[in-house]
Predict the 3D structure of the following.
Amino acid sequence: MVGAAQAAALKKGRVVKNGGRPVTEMSLVLDALFYRLRNCGPWRDLPSQYGPWQTIYGWHRTFARTGLWLTLLKSFARKVGNPVVLVDGTHVVAHQSAANPVGGAAAQAMGKTRGGRNSKVMALTDRKGRLMNFMVVEGQCYEGKHVRALLPKWQKWKVVGDKGFDSDKLRKELERLGHVTCFPGKKNRIRKVSYSKKLYRVRYRVENFFCRIKRWACLAMRRDKLSLHFSSLLAFAAVIDWMQPLKRF
């Protein structure tokens, strides 16, 4: 015979152990994370069909600490054979719920800009615009400072970026490591630089990636206080993006 509590738990899609707390099905946890990624509400506002919100948040915190989604993302990135990579950054405005984290905003990659408190996502994508690596930094940080840390070390890359990466120091540093740079020069440059216009034509695909992930409300506006938790959601969205067919390469 199944008790009333066990029957209710089974109806909600949870497995019940004899004499113990019901175990939430992993498919239900993923559905709840997907829902929160899409809607960006407080954790306690998750629909009751997903069970206790504390359980879902606990799984999210576990995934973040173990780096599950980032590990999956890197496994996808290792399948990239083309050496062309695209780099760029985008701002994510911080919601008031993310303000005043323990240890200070700077420790959680939130800075002050003219647009208010925000973070910057530095992204490295393949030629097709699929995320390979990323960093979450303070909103006012210079993007070129983080390019080297984004590049995977298993091969040499052709790095494509916009005029914001126009720096002789950055070019020399990347070329010293064996990479090829494709950054157009700024208009006020005294000494003109050469770059491949053919390669530069595909740079828009990293912008397309930002457009796709910002359809998720949790990534269009940062609600998480901890940078680790926000990064975990970003990696989760990138894994979903990898599994979606791209119409045009």
Remarks:
- The mean pLDDT is 86.
- The CA atoms of residues 182 and 198 lie 10 Å apart.
- The domain at 69-242 is CATH 3.30.420.10 (Nucleotidyltransferase; domain 5).
